[in-house]
Amino acid sequence: MLNLKYKLGELNPQFLRELKGRLKIRNVLLAIATSLLGQFILFMAYQTKLPQNPIKWPYSNTYCTGGSEYNRPECMLDNYGDVIINWQLWYQDIFKFLGLIAIFAILVGGTYLLINDLATEERRDTLNFIRLSPQSPQSILFGKMLGVPILLYVVVLLAIPLHLWLGLNAKIPLNQILIFYVIFLAASIFYYSGALLFGLIGSWLGGFQCWLGSAFVLGFLVLNQQYLLKYESVFQGPLIALRLMSPQHFIPNYSLNYEMANFHWFGLSLGNSLVMIIGFSLLVYFMGIYFIWQSLQRCYRDPNATMLSKRQSYLLTTSFTAITLGCANLQNEAIKSGYFSDIKDNLLFLIFLNFWLFLYLIAALMPNRQTLQDWARYQHIYRVNHPGKYKLVKDLIWGEKSPGVLAIAINALIVFTSTSVFLSVPSSHGGSKISAFAALIFTFSLLIIYAALAQLLLFMKNEQRLLWTNGIVGAVIILPPIVLFMLFSDPRTQSFLWFFSIVAPSIFLFPPTNYSLNTMGCFLAIVGHASILGLLLFKTKRQLQKAGESATKALLTPN
Question: What is the model's pTM?
Fold first, then answer.
C-alpha cells in the first residue's frame, strides 16, 4: 500500500491529496451500504409491480402478455396456473431506471461536490497555495475531477454488475450497453469540466455558487428527459444538439427512436448508423471539453485573465456554427422546395442556441477593470511614443487585454454570414427571407449592445462590479419583454418598443395575425440600436482615455 501511495503521489499528487481527505473508513462503508441498499430497494420496488397470484379476472398489468386493455396487456395463465410475465420488459425497465439514477447522481451530485470544493478552497485561501505548486494545471484539475467525487464513483461502480446483469437478461446487446457507458463517461468529463470552470470564475456568488451550478445541470437533465422525448419530432433540427448533450438518450431502449433515424448533418444521414451517431456525439462532447479546458487553464494560471483569447473565441464560434447549422434539417424536402415555415422554425432554434453561446462569449471575452486600465495606459504611451503608427484595430481584434466588443461583433458576423448561406437554400419566398434576415440583424444587434453594456459596467469602481454587471445585463434582457407584455400584451400595439427587447426576432419570424411589419418602424429601431451602441461605446472610450491618462501621469510623474 505504501508503494502504491508513492506511485500514485508521483503520478498525480492532487489526486492522492483528495483520496486521503475523503476515503475514510466510515465514508467508504456508508457509500457501500448506500449503493447496496439502494439496489435492493429498487429491485424489490419493481417486484411489487409484477402481477401476484391469485388474481381476480379480468386483470391487466404492464408486464403481462395478453391482449391490450386500456393500454395495458391482459394477464394470461400457463398450464400450471401461474401468470405469464414479460420478464424481458421488466428487466428493461429496471435497467433504464437504474441508468437514470446513475446519470443524475453522477452529473448533479458530482457537479455540486466539485463546485463546492473549489469554493471552499477559495474561501480558505488554499487555492492560491495550490497554484504555487510545480504541478501543471491539467494535473491539479484532473486530480480534483477524479478525487472529489470519489465516493459517488464507489456508489455507482458497485451498481455496474447489477446493471450489466439486468441488461443482458433484457436481451440488450452488450455493445449497446458498453456504448452507453462510453457516452456516460464523456458526458461526465464534459459536465465536470464545466463545474470546475464555474467554480473558478463564480466565486463572487458566494455559498450560492454550488447550488446554482448543480440546479442548472438538474434542470437541464429533467427538461431534456421530459420535454425532448415528448416532442421528439420537433427536435430534429438544431435543438437535436441538446439531445446529444444528455446521456439518458443513449440508454438502450430508452428513447422512442434510439438510433434517431431522421437525424442528418448537412444532408448526410447519420442517424441510420449507430457508429456514426455515437461518433458525432463524442465529437460534440470533446469539442466542448476542449474549449472548457482552454478556459480552465487560463483562469487557473491567472484569475484576472479572460476565459478565452479572441482567437479561441473565433474558433469556438466557427465550430459551434458548423455543428448547429449542420443539424438544421437542410435535407428536408420541404425546405428544398421553399416551404419557409420549416426554415423559420429552424432559424428560431438557431437564434436560441446562439443566444446562449454569445452570453458565454460575453462572459469569456470581457476583461476586468485592472486589465483595461493596464491596456489603456499601454495604448496612451504607445500613441505618444509612436505617432502615426496606429495599431488599435489589430489590438482590438487579437489582443487579449483590449475591450472585447469588437471581438463579439466579429463572432456575430461569423454566425450571420454562415446563417445567411443557410437562408439562401430555398429558391422562393423572398418576403419571408427579408423577415428572416431582419430577425438575424436584430438578434446580433441586441447581443452586441449587451456586450457593450457589460464592458462598460465592468469598468465600474465598485468592488461588487461582477455582481452588478450580471444583475444589470440580466435585467436588461429579462425585464423589457415582461414589462411590455404587462403594458401591451399584443405586439401589434407599440411594436416599435418591442424591437428593443429580446423577443424582437420572434416578431419578425412569427408576426401576429393580421399584422404587417412597419418598414419605417424597423428602420427607426435599427437607428435606435445604433444610437444606443454608439453611446455605450463612446462612454467606454471616454473612461478608457481618462484611465490611460491618469495611469500614465502617475507612472511618469517623478516623486
Answer: 0.87
